[in-house]
Automatic annotation (TrEMBL):
SUPFAM superfamilies in UniProt: Glyceraldehyde-3-phosphate dehydrogenase-like, C-terminal domain (SSF55347), NAD(P)-binding Rossmann-fold domains (SSF51735)
Keyword NAD: no
Coiled-coil region: none
Recorded GO MF terms: nucleotide binding
Name this polypeptide is given: Putative NADH-dependent dehydrogenase
InterPro entries: Gfo/Idh/MocA-like_OxRdtase_N (IPR000683), Gfo/Idh/MocA_Oxidoreductases (IPR051450), GFO_IDH_MocA-like_dom (IPR055170), NAD(P)-bd_dom_sf (IPR036291)
One Pfam family per UniProt: GFO_IDH_MocA
Ranges where the GFO/IDH/MocA-like oxidoreductase domain occurs: 128-255
Length: 331
């Protein structure tokens, strides 16, 4: 029996990649997608060939699992609806706009007896897992500091809601801080204090970002005594040959290790310009395979659960709180 999957929302930029991979998986029956925006639904259906169905009808078709790819502001409603229908959930990040919404989503899944996974594909990188093993087994000695970078082109050209505070909760900080926060959680670190500066790019440079943060620098202090910085921004121009970077330096008493998750790429120049084509591990594929494993009730899962998504959300919301209060926030 194939695993029955549905997409709830098509607003997220990752929805296309998920649809393409699932469509090509012979063990999956992709039931279709729901989407409130008629314009967006028509475009997504034309690109993917998937059926656009009302949410209630899609959930009544009995999916084993759903992938929530809507605007962040709609996550809670869709997760609660999916849980009520008995479907396991893979939810895009950040999982919610508020901690209250995140806790309500967890409660809905617990009451329905369904699993919740957060879409953190970076933790599936073999290089990330090797670095985690090195950190946890003392291969670098006592960890002193982490230096993380997550830069990209702003996604609001493809999906305007990413720079709408009501729908996204913020700008580059909401979009990017969570990935590195999840890696610190994966490496066993517990955040104690958060300080941050989140600022919009000057209006004369990028007027479309006048209302939201387009650059951020976050400083964390961990219970272990180590510290970390997260340099998170939409700093890459539209002409940049790939969407961005995710890098991490880890400094210990016995060594330094550098991680560049998307370094494996080829430079291609043609009539359309120059771009970098990645040839490394397909992290989305690993994450989706893991979620399919969850949906078929097998025991092993390497994915980020609700707790991981919640801890990352705590960090990003604390960063915005620190910016608003101009002082460190204690968790």
């Amino acid at each position: 029996m194939p695993t029955r999957i549905a997409l709830l929302g098509a607003a997220h930029v990752h929805a296309d990649a998920y649809a393409a991979w699932l469509t090509g998986c012979k063990h999956v029956e992709l039931l279709g997608f729901s989407e409130d925006s008629p314009h967006l639904a028509a475009e997504f259906a034309a690109r993917t060939g998937l059926r656009h169905l009302p949410l209630a009808q899609l959930l009544e078709s009995g999916p084993d699992g759903v992938i929530v790819c809507s605007e962040t502001a709609r996550h809670r409603f869709l997760v609660e609806a999916a849980a009520q229908a008995g479907a396991h959930v893979l939810c895009e990040k950040p999982i919610a706009l508020t901690l209250d919404d995140a806790r309500a989503m967890n409660q809905a899944c617990l009451q329905a007896g369904v699993e919740f996974r957060t879409a953190f594909p970076v933790r599936f990188s073999p290089e990330v897992q090797n670095l985690r093993h090195m950190v946890l087994t003392g291969g670098l000695g006592q960890i002193l500091a982490y230096g993380g970078v997550n830069h990209s082109v702003c996604p609001d050209r493809e999906r305007q809601w990413f720079s709408d505070p009501l729908m996204a909760g913020g700008g580059a900080g909401m979009d990017h801080i969570v990935h590195l926060a999840d890696l610190f959680h994966l490496f066993g670190e517990q955040v104690e204090t958060v300080y941050a500066r989140l600022v919009p790019v000057p209006e004369w440079v990028l007027p479309e970002h006048a209302r939201v943060d387009a650059a951020a620098l976050v400083t964390l202090r961990f219970a272990s005594g180590a510290s970390a910085t997260i340099d998170s921004s939409w700093s890459r121009p539209r002409t940049y040959p790939r969407w961005g970077h995710l890098k991490l330096d880890v400094t210990g008493t016995q060594g330094l290790q550098t991680l560049d998750v998307f370094a494996e790429s080829l430079a291609i120049t043609n009539s359309e310009g120059r771009h970098w084509a990645g040839y490394g591990t397909d992290l989305n594929a690993l994450m989706l395979r893991d979620f399919l494993n969850v949906c078929t009730l097998r025991e092993h899962s390497s994915g980020a659960d609700w707790h991981a998504g919640y801890q990352a959300l705590r960090v990003v919301l604390a960063a915005y709180q620190a910016e608003a209060g101009a002082q460190a926030v204690h968790l």
